[in-house]
Each structure stands twice: as C-alpha cells, then as structure tokens.
Design a protein that fits this description.
The protein has 148 residues and is of the alpha+beta class. It has 3 helices and 5 strands; from the N terminus they run αββαβαββ. The longest helix has 23 residues. The radius of gyration is 14 Å and the shape is globular. The two termini are 18 Å apart.
Length: 148
C-alpha cells in the first residue's frame, strides 16, 4: 500500500471503481507530466443547491466528486503516489441565480485534496454556479494533477 492509499485508509475512504464515461470523451488524459481528469459528478445527489439540496449536502456531494476524481486517477496511473501536486480543480454547482455559497460547496472537494495530499493538495480553483448539470446532478468537479 502506497503513502496516499494509506492516508485514504486513515481517513476511512475507500475508492470506488472508476465511473465509466457516459458520452464521447475519455475520463483521463495525460499530456507530459499533467493529468487531466474529466468532470466527476455527484450521481447520488441531484437538484439545485440551496433549493432542493442544502449546502451541507452539496458540500458532501463535492467531496464525493473528489473521491471519484482520485478513483479515476488511480485507474489511469496505477498508483496515487505518482501525484506530485493537485494543480487545479474546476467546480460547478447546479443552483439558482441567487445562490452565492458556491465556493463553500466546492470546498468539499478542495478540503479533501488537502486532507489527502497535505501542502501538495493546495490548488488553483474555479467555482462556478450553473443553471443545470448533466443528469440533474448538484455538483461536478474536474482536476488537473501533476505527476512524476
């Protein structure tokens, strides 16, 4: 078991099998030392944050998206210890126009990356509110990772 897998176990996190692509794209692309992980969605949490879904549940949905990102990365890389740094996360929240807690929702993903990778988990980020997301999910998060 690698260092990152051990850290996940300490946190009580078991990575699922990587979700399959649902359209014409690939889940992970590596270009040089950067790995781009396609957006992972909160498949079990659907609806608009602040209306159908309370902000705390939306935060947990973003955390689950980050867990799916790590599952995709492990599936592509074979070993999460190859990740040198979390470079960027892009977070999207399905919400009403007056919902302003978008950064707090996406913190669910950001906080997890820092819990798992420490300083190397601190990243640049975008947090965007959207009128809808695929399949009516509440949150989608994508990642750019630096690998060795």
């Amino acid at each position: 078991m690698g260092k990152i897998e051990a850290r996940l176990a300490e946190l009580g996190i078991e990575l699922p099998e990587p979700p399959q692509a649902v359209a014409n794209y690939v889940p992970v692309v590596q270009s040089g030392n950067l790995v781009f992980v396609s957006g992972q969605v909160s498949a079990n949490v659907k609806g608009k944050a602040g209306k159908d879904v309370d902000p705390e549940l939306a935060y947990e949905a973003a955390r689950q998206c980050a867990i799916s990102l790590l599952a995709q990365a492990r599936g592509a890389l074979g070993n999460l210890d190859r990740i040198v740094r979390v470079v960027r996360l892009g977070g999207f929240v399905n919400c009403q126009p007056d919902f302003t807690d978008i950064p707090q929702v996406i913190n669910g993903a950001s906080d997890l990356m820092v819990e798992v990778f420490g300083e190397a988990g601190k990243h640049a980020r975008a947090a965007v509110g959207c009128p809808s997301l695929p399949m009516g999910v509440t949150v989608e998060v994508e990642a750019v990772l630096e690998v060795d």
